[in-house]
Design a protein that fits this description.
This protein is mostly helical and about 450 residues long. It has 20 helices and no strands. The chain has 2 domains: about 5-200, Orthogonal Bundle (Arp2/3 complex 21 kDa subunit ARPC3), CATH 1.10.1760; about 230-445, Hypothetical protein af1432. Helix content is about 65%, strand content about 0%. It comes from Streptomyces cinnamoneus (Streptoverticillium cinnamoneum).
Length: about 450
Amino acid sequence: MWALPAAARAYIACAVLAAAVCALPAVRAGAAVPWGPVLLLAGVCVVCERLPRCPLTLPVLLAGAFLLPPGAAGLVAVPGALAGRVAQRPAWLRRLWHAAQSSLAANAASYVYGRGAPRVVTAPDFPHALVPALVAALVLALVVTALDGGVLVTAEGRSPRTAWRGPLPAALVPPLAHGPTGLMTAVLWHSPYGPPAALLVLLPMAVSSWVQGRCRRERAAHQATVRALVQAVDLKDRYTRGHSERVGRASVLIARELGISGDRLEALRFAGTLHDVGKLGVPTRLLRKDGPLTPEERRVIELHPEYGHEMVRGIGFLDEARAAILHHHERLDGTGYPYGLKGCQIPEFARVVSVADAFDAMTSTRSYSRARPVPVALDELHRCSGTHFDPAMVAALARALDRHGWHPAFAPDPQEPAVPVSRNVPLDHCSAPGAPAGTDARPGGRA
């Protein structure tokens, strides 16, 4: 504790002292306090704090705030906080601070709730007690956030604005979800079914939170997998560094205009981000070659969609994205590769990624070519619609840029606005034969 700044030590000591003062009336009241509920709820808090990622501490504290008077409600939080898991040292100081913080927050919530609703709530009283319960839950969250902000200010020297304003919005969401659960626990506590039925209410929330947590961790693992693959491509092909993320972003813009949402939208983001993962199978010397490619070298590079498809074949969550990785260089007129598909034979995701890929290639500065302004790139895509690109996808991109704009990797001119798309500047030609619109025959252009 003595390694902390003096202001932080004084702040924590004041919080502990305030929590002790709030608990003193309950200790002095002795038998007048319902110690049975206090001990039972405190025991549940201990179990919740010891279990990894257990989401039930907050609803248990709220149930205590609704069932018990101030002081006693604060005592419910203390054993669990003192026995909880702590990842960083000094553990004893963090536990002591957590106990004081939780106790003060529970006391404040109990006081606020008691001003608007009775301690014994029956089922008919539930609707009338709901508003005081939600207000009390918000008070609990505000007290916790305010106390946390004080620690950040005194211990880490943060400004009050960053210490309190940043965490506040996110801190107000859980109480709105857990407040009704805590109130239902309090209602059942005084019902004929008693405390066992009241605590059973917490089981569905525990299962639901566990499932949601698992989904979040799985999603994070998916994103980490994609990032690792993209970083490997970027390290190998310096000409297209950052290109993959931008293609994923442009693909999402197009998809939203087409009404794609939910899991398919996420799959399309992965498709755009991983469309060039097959470059990992292409010799680095070809990807970094400065001069024109020979026909044989071009054929080697044109294998990268098939390499990419094989690389991600076993990654189940990519699903529909695999088709886009394989076919994003196909063209509507059948002159693309690797299979020369035509029209609607080309999967929808591949038609989206093809437009996003060419658009970013044109609007990004490469070592051998300057970025084109957004309106010029759009004009090129429109000119190639129906032959190289699906007109519906090009129109969707144009609408999305009108609405959201675009910020290329490197602007072609510092005076050029980032998102003007109303001008229509014609080009002399669509693209070089055998290369996507807006690219040339060099490996960096084969984005």
